[in-house]
Request: fold
Amino acid sequence: MWVSDKWRDFELLDCSKGEKLERWGNYILVRPDPQAIWDTKRSNPNWQKSSARYSRSSKGGGSWDKGKLPEKWQVKYGELTFNVKPMNFKHTGLFPEQAVNWDYIMNKIREAKRPVKVLNLFAYTGGATIAAAAAGASVCHVDAAKGMVAWAKENAKASGLEDKPIRWIVDDCAKFVEREIRRGHKYDAIIMDPPSYGRGPSGEIWKLEENLYPFVKLCTGVLSDDPLFVLINSYTTGLSASTLTYIAGSLFTPRFGGKAVSDELGLPVTETGLCLPCGATCRWERPTEH
Reply:
């Protein structure tokens, strides 16, 4: 498991009975988590005095009880700064378990000691975009949701990166990649965080199990001749991390060499010293000295 254990502004205090107790800066949130199926004792007093709680509805969806929670606030991870905004469907605009991937991205780019062009697909609020830009890469950030791209721009500005070479694209990711192939544009690294299920702007249905392999295969067409890495995230519960290894290993390794490695992502739980699993990541890479 790759564990994001270097946070100071975020802490997973406890998790039990389908919920997690988190500290985001100065605020304590309670949010649902389907992985926390255990019924352990909730001894942390913050369970009873949280700043806000997201509760699921028996009719589907759910809602926040925000108390005196501000509309937004900031948290830092090393040199990166993010705007946190509790929004519909329990999200805050940030997945803290991805911090271990941000570290990986920054290290790979800095170790390359050459100009690196990064393509970030399904890029959401830009955690990986900001990490790559902070490490010196030029980045193309693509997401179909206009509001998420605007939020990512806010995060770049908060991190002092608004003048870095970042292209902000609101588009369907597959259609954008197809156009980049026709234009002959190439990238040294690709990051993708595809949804388990989604609908495109024209009503196209995306199912990860059906669409991931052809999408990753399509992305081979925009890799440079000397690619650095490809990073694939998955939050689909039934999909093994080893499935991602097989996809990346079958598509990238025969052409470029290198290797693919996948593992679960995790967050350390302060109360128990254990780790909460939070999805999976595949990292395909070539040696930086190549």
About this structure: The chain is about 25% helix and 30% strand. The longest strand covers residues 275-285.
